[in-house]
Amino acid sequence: MASKVTTIYRARTERIQTESRFRTNNQIVMLFGAVVFTLVVIGLGATISASSTVGINWEYGQYHFFFRQLLGVVLGTVVLLVTSRVPYQLYQRFAMYLFVGALALLFLVLLVGVEVGGSSRWLRFGPLGFEPSELAKFAVIVLMASTISGGKGVFDDLKSYTSVVLLVVGSVGFLLIQQPDFGTTILIAICAFVVLWVGGAPLTYMAGSTAVAAGLSILLAVIAPYRLDRLKGFLDPWGDAADTGYQLIQSWVALGTGGLWGVGPGNSRARWFYLPNAHTDFIFAIIGEEIGLVGGLFVITLFVVLVVLGWMVARRAPDHFGQMVAAGITAWLGFQGLINVGGVLGWMPITGITLPFISYGLSSLMVNMGALGVLLNVTRQGRSPFGVRK
């Protein structure tokens, strides 16, 4: 009789814990949805304002870029719904194919890519363009996580560790530098190191590779004239206010004009060709001008919440692969937002990296939404606070 009571009690406890897990996971999914929905809506509002003058000047029409971004939201939502339903474990099986495909597209960009602003980063498919570097971010994260969790002895010795880092990060970085796209190279390296850290890489290995990567980054920054100009513009924008420091100074002017509450949606002055790339790289400056410091802090807070939720998902993931993938995607979205906002505020050198979910760009928006879908799938399979697994 006692055994039967114990069995009933255990079954009831497991049922309560399982229900608790589902409630917690669903709450996280809903929070993710609310945060990203808000970011996307803010992005649409900022795009319709920041891009209107460019659309008119290029004879595309005032709402050209807005409607294209709206199309990106629709397509991105479809991608998100699909990836949120695909078991994330499937990516581990096809990690190498995904990575090789991303490399092939990056190589193809060097051959037939569309050049914009001195860089060949896009492949054109009729009226639509695609930026393979966006897919490369996800491919690197998945392959690194798959290699580590596959029990292939990545951390057994320095040679194995170095080989994996050079093969995955080095090959992608080499192709990106040829475009050139230094900012995305840095971002991918950061994501890879986060995956390595979560994967359990020895601190001595990581410290050494971080030092090498930092030294290489400094070297690459100073040997290319345009990157050196960006560095000079960051260190002393007023030293050449009409050239290397112009964009950052105009960004400060826009943010300063916005004050605490902003000049109002659609009333930006910087968009009238004072601030270059207002609807892409520097859209945060338009947000700060139109809805002020309060609006800018609200956007930053949303990204902080996104990172906190992503880290919670990584900690609760059912397996090691899921932990690394969730941490890598969280680092991707979080650090990309940090680098973009840091460049707009003058806290970091300008890199040309867009603000996730907000900046204009179909391919970046769709891939970001797809990556979020993967994160949601890890969330749904996550452990409960009691340690019960699905």
Tell me briefly what this model is.
The chain contains 14 helices and three strands.
Written account of the structure:
- The structure is a single chain.
- Helix content is 72%, strand content 3%.
- It is mainly alpha-helical and 390 residues long.
- The protein has a 3-stranded antiparallel sheet, with helices on both faces.
- It is globular and about 55 Å long.
- The two termini are 29 Å apart.
- Mean pLDDT is 88; it is low at 385-390.
Number of strands: 3
Query: What class do helices, strands and sheet pairing give?
Result: mainly alpha
What's the mean pLDDT score? 88
Count helical runs.
Answer: 14
Which runs of at least 5 residues are low in confidence (pLDDT < 50)? Answer: 385-390
Distance between the termini: 29 Å
Elements, N to C (H/E)? HHHHHEEEHHHHHHHHH
Draw up the topology in text:
Blueprint: H1 2-50, H2 52-57, H3 64-85, H4 89-93, H5 95-112, E1 114-116, E2 119-125, E3 128-130, H6 132-149, H7 158-178, H8 182-199, H9 203-223, H10 225-235, H11 246-258, H12 283-316, H13 320-345, H14 362-380
Antiparallel strand pairs: 1-2, 2-3
Helix pairs in contact: 1-3, 1-12, 3-14, 5-6, 5-7, 6-7, 6-8, 6-13, 6-14, 7-8, 8-9, 8-13, 9-10, 11-12, 12-13, 13-14
